[in-house]
């Protein structure tokens, strides 16, 4: 009830390149019949033709591309239906694309600008995939992990119990009973208002600095092992009597547990380094002084 947040030194980063959202035809989505369990099959020939539309082939390679690009739309479908759904979507795309060309939509200036931008964005993504993501090794990730762990200051964790009551007077009475030799866990089970502590003697487990509300955190960190607060501690939840059972150095997360977060950090750094070099080699001009100032400020904040 008192935990605020558990911050990791590793901040995740996602690269999302959105494409046009396409929906399956309702008839197909509702009526596609389940097929028999799929048998393990040899990899399909990418050049194999799976359908033709107006004399133009849709190949296995095209189908794989459709499945990949539209995977979110197919996520709710059973695996045995996704291949047929991808082909249905690819056919819909081709027939409407052919109609668009027949109607002259491909000649529209705004459409051509969008196509040019989407091509540039796709090339941007390909560059990131090939020159950044594809070149990262496990050894590089391990080295970055070791560097980040070494840079973290040592953190001590506290194992504490508490008894939460509504008034200061109740807390003071409990402290007097403890001074007289009463068992802390027994008193916690009898008196605490914290539902999570009524059956485990008020045990909160181990926690580090900043994981509890400030007043509680300060009091717990200041106690020696085996000691309890001689004065009630007030927080937004009520009045606490706190006992420290143990203290230890916090162990860093295992490499495998944060490997993907480390990968995101490495991708981020390599991406910005790649962009910085490309920008240095390019001639970029922004005539609008106010806009240029805003862009420079935004890039400086990255």
From TrEMBL:
<feature type="domain" description="PpiC">
    <location>
        <begin position="155"/>
        <end position="246"/>
    </location>
</feature>
<protein>
    <recommendedName>
        <fullName>Parvulin-like PPIase</fullName>
        <ecNumber>5.2.1.8</ecNumber>
    </recommendedName>
</protein>
<dbReference type="InterPro" id="IPR050245">
    <property type="entry name" value="PrsA_foldase"/>
</dbReference>
<keyword id="KW-0413">Isomerase</keyword>
<dbReference type="InterPro" id="IPR000297">
    <property type="entry name" value="PPIase_PpiC"/>
</dbReference>
<dbReference type="GO" id="GO:0016853">
    <property type="term" value="F:isomerase activity"/>
</dbReference>
<keyword id="KW-0732">Signal</keyword>
<comment type="similarity">
    <text>Belongs to the PpiC/parvulin rotamase family.</text>
</comment>
<dbReference type="InterPro" id="IPR046357">
    <property type="entry name" value="PPIase_dom_sf"/>
</dbReference>
<feature type="signal peptide">
    <location>
        <begin position="1"/>
        <end position="29"/>
    </location>
</feature>
<dbReference type="InterPro" id="IPR027304">
    <property type="entry name" value="Trigger_fact/SurA_dom_sf"/>
</dbReference>
<dbReference type="Pfam" id="PF13616">
    <property type="entry name" value="Rotamase_3"/>
</dbReference>
<keyword id="KW-0697">Rotamase</keyword>
